[in-house]
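Q: Got one fold?
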Amino acid sequence: MPSKLPQSQCDFTCPSCFRVLKSRSGLTQHIIHTHSSSSRRPPKQKAVDREDPPPRVGFEPSLCTRENHAILDDTCGNDLSAGAPPPSQITADKNDWYPFTSHVEFETAEFLFTDNQMPQAQVDRLLQLWTASLLPFNGRPPYTDHTDLHKVIDAIPHGDAVWTSFQVQYAGDVPEPAPRWMTKGYDVWFRNANAVVKNLLSNTDFHEHFDYIPYREFEPTGQRRWENFMSGNWAWHHADILAQDAAMHGAMLVPIILGSDKTTVSVATSQNDYYPLYISIGNIHNKIRRAHRNALVLLAFLAIPKTDCESEDSAEFRKFRRQLFHTTLSHILSSLKCGMSEPEVWQCPDGHFRRVAYALAAYIADYLEQVLLSCLVQGWCPLCMNMSNHLDGGNGVPRSREHAEYCIHAFAFSELWDQYGIVGDLTPFTNDFPHADIYKLLTPDLLHQIIKGVFKDHLVTWISEYLKISYGEAEANRILDDIDRRIAAVPLYPNLRRFPEGRRFKQWTGDDSKALMKVYLPAIEGHVPPGVVRTVSAFLEFCYTARRNSLNESAIESLQQALDHFHHHRQIFQQTGVREQGPKGFSLPRQHSMTHYRHLIQEFGAPNGLCSSITESKHIKAVKKPWRRSNCSNALGQMLITNQRLDKLAAAHVDFENRQMLQGSVLSATIRDAELHGGVDNGSDGDSGKSDPTLSHLIARKFPSDIHALAHHIQQPKLPQLTSHFLQFQLQDDTNPSNDDAALPDLSNSPVSVFHSAVSTFYAPSDLSGLGGMHTERIRSTPCWDERTVCRQGLPFFSFTYGGVKYPCALIQWFSTISDGPNDDTGMWVVQPDLYADGQHELGVVHLHSVLRGAHLIPVYGHDCLPTDIQHTDSLDIFRAYYVNKYIDHHAFEIAF
């Protein structure tokens, strides 16, 4: 068990004026009061019951400048003057709920079908109970049964894109006897792609999060910044291509984004796989696409040919399965083809009608899907021409449609396969569309390439193999058990998943890998060589940089530096025998994909807007939940109807909200309509996401309001003195600071309120605005209990009033950095707790506005194994030093010192 530290010997001298202070708390308050800029200084005499918003970090969005494309610029039409308001498209009044009869009827349908997804039998039972309760009053519920509910939903006139189907069958020579797959027909269900895109374009919910023009964005420093799809080079360059056609001038570019991936709904049924195809448009901002706001729409269910084991590996079946995929995609997307050559007129989210030009722009897919799309041999890179046994060597010449077509005409199929990785007898679906090149459409995939690929399948596996090679099976298992205990001993933090048994679970999900990445690095340090630690650290730097919501030129350079460090340090796995010597040892397609991220970010914007995690999440809503709502027998037809009804309800919600018919709750609206709203309180506790109040709205109960009684209650006897010192600094005059030995203010008559949380609102450098403005995070300081059910009080947030002024404060524990820079191996700063002479932790009271956000500390475990009885609740009290975990989330990664 680590022993306690000796008292910290620190010189509390102000670096600006060289004034010597008595304690670290005094030094901090002196710097904040005397030397901080006015924007960062806590308020002194401003009074009242509302705290000021916290300071901002990073550039405000208004400071960035944009250069719009000069030709494909649709901001000014030919028929309306610039700035003219959109024509009124709303014909129904605010009381027209068609096909619903009232607000209650609509919200009941939305609650039962969308939010709760109640089974039909339970819907019927609920409505029967509702009917029985209203019979004595001659009333009736909104619906009689689930059939009535579905009938009304089906009558919604918005968001309708009808499902249709076609059948595909093998068209080659059929031998006798013929395998069943050659004679079977395969049904493909799809919706009209043009109608789906039209619905996306006319969705007013996207109005504030929609780009109408390709643009280049620059920060005040002059650095270019990439975030949303239209900020990338692809949109700008494709606009240049379309601008060569005079008929396209003034049109709005609509980049088509596709995504597909097989998913399993159940392992207990005979047909458990589905193959959904999704569609979105690049004009919609990344945050909306990630936020499940219907920016990614289910377009089709592709066919999944199956056969017996004898035919499964035959060349004919493999070719049929691949060509079926491409033929199907070409047919499904054919309704968009005309709009790629001649603009079509559609209504946009802002209400204006514009001439729009479609273009196949991006395809979200994992590596296996990318190989299928690009008609390549597995093991080759779908983006560059490097050999499969030396992926990271060579110049990485980009693949192109022109080069592939030349090679197919010039070389035999066997030579194409061996020397270029091209399957020569397949034709990509993109060849049927103008200006489309499948090799230019493939996007970075953070989930499968980086998080599940490089981290889980490569690094975590390699570290286990290294331990077994170096120490033998038995000792390696002992070390792995200790790594698991270290992971389990990580202190709690909001939204951090705990691993009580470490990292040993059989089925890893993407969320498992993301959570483990946050705490894995400190857990392995001390058990593996520094080179392995540095490899993982370089990877995490790359991963967290790539996951940023926006990246500027400096961030892309940092990304490249992290990749260079990763390539340098990973050689230790070859030196220790984990990987094969030579270039083949690291010829791994998913790991090689990291070399293309710099170019792909510049092409498509931030990778998290085109990640397969978006389609994986959509599987739950569009495939798995509708399947569970079906009777699991011939479920696909039922799933199609469920998705259609969900789309209709979502479109109706947007329509009613656009007409301002959904303001307030249904109860408050009903009361208003009945003119009985005077004095009614709907129980709202306010919006915790606002930036004005930074303390919680709820005062903690059962805490004394006297400062001395509170100190006794939370077992912090120094609280009154620390608070008095804090107030003394707050009351100082800038021009004539008070003497440190002056009498401290008396807080006996100052009521104190305790809070268990505070809201920190800040700008992260790459996430300038978020959906609601600034990024909001709740910092918690709540009582917790160990296994012995003994209450262990955390350090509280509190406020007190003195002289009519309210002071929001935090009681904190001081830590000092051990060195002048981050740890060389992990890249994280190391801190140690400051102690009083009696060995107790040094505390301080600071103004709440001195707190930017919560910090997560992970112990520096060292080389020794942890005792088996250490709990995560003990970790912050028993170790000598701690890492400041900058990998706890991407905001901490950007702003942690």
Remarks:
- The chain has 30 helices and 25 strands.
- The mean pLDDT is 83.
- Residues 163 and 641 are 9 Å apart (CA to CA).
